[in-house]
Amino acid sequence: MNISGYILEEDLKTTNGANCRWGFAVRDGQKFFIKELLSPVYPTDEVELSREVRDRKRNSCNQFALRQAMLYKAINDCSDGTLVHISEFFRFGSHYYITMPAIESLPEELLYSGAFVAEDRYRTSRLLIFSIGRLHRAGLIHGDLKMSNVLLTRSPGRNITARIIDFEDCYWTSESPKPGDSIRADQRYMAPETFRLMMGEEERLTQAIDVFSLGLMIHEILTGNFPKYDSQYDYPFEAVLSGSPLMILKNRLPDPFDILLPRMLAAEPGSRITLAEAEKYFPDNGPYRNGAEIDGKNLFFRAGNL
To answer: In sequence order, which ranges of 90-200 are alpha helices (DSSP H)?
Structure first.
């Protein structure tokens, strides 16, 4: 199938009731990831609607398209390469599409493997703080940070690094959702205030929701697991909302993450450190000297030792 010059390798697919379909396509010899948004649907001339309804729906779609184009440009402008660039945003027929270069990622199991060595884990965690920090300085909130939206790859120097994807839930800080709005978030990485808003409480979501999610992700990257919490709760946000502390494995964390993560995972968003503040904890050259361990702390682990 040809979608505006993108030749699909196979039919687009969807997972977990998502609001999009996705797949891979080739254009001018280059491979792309392509995503079809299932909403909104642009009413083409073939759709039987009254002129008034068609005009109203088209106007709504045009406003959506303008907002998305501005959003994706802002993301591209603040990317240093870690935030995967959006190649194109366009409408084809009744649907909107997003394309970006296909990323050759490493197996997800690497996160839980000793092959992902301490220096790689530190570098990846630091990179995520700086990259999402650039997004925040542009006045944006990612809104759906989770490990499945981070692709582990190899740099030209063969070091393991990360690329961040999936910006469809990204929004400006001025666009904080209101009670009753549709919010998509992974419960495993959800900030407690996001859940409060979903339950209808008056809550203004800020960039602190990204900080909380990123804190969980970095703890997972550095130790292979989430912070521990009472087993009666299924998710970290449930424990936090119930007043049960997250037990951060500080003896497994290198400097300065042993200081940063408790502040990133504070229960109240106003008490969390900002990523701009977090960046100040990292010297330009990092803590490594010829591959040595970080301050004597060995981050190698096996899943059975967690």
So the answer is: 118-137, 192-198
CATH number of 108-301: 1.10.510.10
- Whether the Cβ atoms of residue 272 and residue 192 lie closer than 8 Å to each other: no
Mean pLDDT of 4-9: 96
Contact 105, 245 (CB under 8 A): no
Inter-residue contact 144 to 185 (CB < 8 Å): yes
Rounded Cα distance between 281 and 287, Å, is 11
- Contact between 186 and 74 (Cβ < 8 Å): no
Dihedral pair phi/psi, residue 68, rounded to 5°? -65, -40
Q: Give the pTM.
A: 0.88
Residue 274 tokens read as 């900002």
Instruction: Tell the burial category of 118 from Cβ atoms under 10 Å away from its Cβ (0-12, 13-18, 19+).
Output: buried
Angle value at C-alpha 253, between 247 and 254, nearest 5 degrees: 155
Predicted pLDDT at 154: 87
Contact in structure between 269 and 208 (CB atoms under 8 Å): yes
Q: What does CATH list as the number for 2-101?
A: 3.30.200.20
Amino acid at 69: A
Closest CA to 221 of 181, 168, 264: 264
- Crossing angle (nearest 10°) for helices 51-78 and 118-137: 130
**Domain coordinates in residue numbering, the chain:** 2-101, 108-301
Per DSSP, the three-state class of 198 is helix
Q: What is the pLDDT of residues 213-241, one digit of tens each?
A: 999 999 999 999 999 999 999 999 999 99
Q: Say whether 298 sits in a helix, a strand or coil.
A: coil
